[in-house]
Amino acid sequence: MEGKKVFQSQNKSRLAILSLSNMMSVPSSVVAVIQLKVPDAIFQGGSNVALSAAEILAVALPNGGGEPDNLERILRLLTSYDIFEEHLCSNGVRKFSLTEIGKCLATDEEGLSYSPYVLQHNQDAYMRAWPCLKDAVENPSVEPFRKVNGGEHAMKYYTNPNQIALFNKAFIGMTSPFMREVLEFYDGFKEVQTLVDVGGSTGVSLSLIMDKFPNITKGINFDLPQILASAPQLPGITHVAGDATEFVPSGDAVMMKWLCSGFSDDECRKMMKNCHKALPADGKLIICDPVLPELTDESTRTKAILGGDVFMMTMYGTKKTRTEKQFKELGIAAGFSRFSVFYIDSYLVFMEFHK
């Protein structure tokens, strides 16, 4: 009996390794169904009607063609990751609908989804870097992304209009649902008249905040020139180009959302010091970023954050995700005296730094 338990444990372990060995199949399959617009084919008008692979292809490829059997194999894999729900009909035909996770990949009534974020993170230039991940351990001065992309920094990659457009779509698709949730629970913008959003991309966050808090009469969307080149004109918002490691425009409050994890400790200290200089005596810096747990667990949240952290290491070298303690230490080094944390979203955390 004892031997049977040992074999069962070993079988379970071997299955886990086999699953990890084939893990590349999962993001590649997600990218494929996005490129084929499978989520939108199923979610037409929010109906989420279960369709067979052949029926999906009839929508995705209206001019004909495609191999339903190959698509079905991909859909079955993603069903095992709770992206699709499988319906086995009495005639043996398999149909698929979207789970709540899968719905995140479908275009909503505002034209938004998480699909651009997935595509942005799985572009060819990024994918080339992953085989060199061990180099980040052996020689941390060599960024895997730079090594395989002619020495080009990952942020410099966003010079092509198509790349910038994808970046902006990914940013908006991730930001809008998050900000709507934040604004239901966080009232830290109540006393603010001028709000600066550092790394605000298109200005969508500022626009949503100012709609909710009319006391904010001036919004400053601060980002790199190439990112702002296609930013739309929005009421009450001024786009200002620049580099936060060099200066930050003045305001009653400064916000940095999903930005710090893209910078090294030295760069973060510089940005936070510049934010400190830009604020009045009663001003505050609001940072919204993923925060690493002190202890590692097997939760989906921890896996998402640690996966993102290794992504930053691979693509951006010294950039990293941080714990609450590490954020507090950076704030103190930048001259801030008080630190508060607000857990609102399942992934991102709101932190306030007061002078």
Overview of this protein structure:
This protein has 355 residues and is α/β, with parallel strands linked by helices. Helices cover 45% and strands 16% of the residues. It is built from 16 helices and 11 strands. Strands 4, 5, 6, 7, 8, 9, 10 and 11 form an 8-stranded mixed beta sheet that branches. The protein has a 3-stranded antiparallel beta sheet with strand order 1-3-2. β4, α12 and β5 form a beta-alpha-beta unit. α7 packs across α11. The longest helix is centred in the middle third of the chain and has 25 residues.
Summarize the structure.
This protein has 355 residues and is of the alpha/beta class.
Number of strands: 11
Q: Specify the biggest β-sheet.
A: 8 strands, mixed
Beta-strand fraction estimate: 15-25%
* Low-pLDDT segments: none
Q: Tell me the series of helices and strands, N- to C-terminal.
A: HHHEHHEEHHHHHHEHEHEEHEHEHEE
Q: Estimate the mean pLDDT confidence.
A: 91
The Cα radius of gyration reads 23 Å
Separation, N- and C-terminal Cα atoms: 65 Å
Shape: globular
Q: Give the helix proportion (percent range).
A: 40-55%
- Quickly count the helices: 16
Layout of helices and strands:
Blueprint: H1 2-21, H2 25-35, H3 38-42, E1 51-52, H4 53-60, H5 68-79, E2 84-88, E3 94-98, H6 100-103, H7 115-121, H8 124-127, H9 135-138, H10 144-148, H11 161-185, E4 194-198, H12 204-212, E5 218-223, H13 225-228, E6 237-241, E7 253-257, H14 265-278, E8 284-292, H15 300-316, E9 322-323, H16 324-333, E10 338-343, E11 348-354
Parallel strand pairs: 4-5, 4-7, 5-6, 7-8, 8-9
Antiparallel strand pairs: 1-3, 2-3, 8-11, 10-11
Helix pairs in contact: 2-5, 4-5, 7-11, 11-12
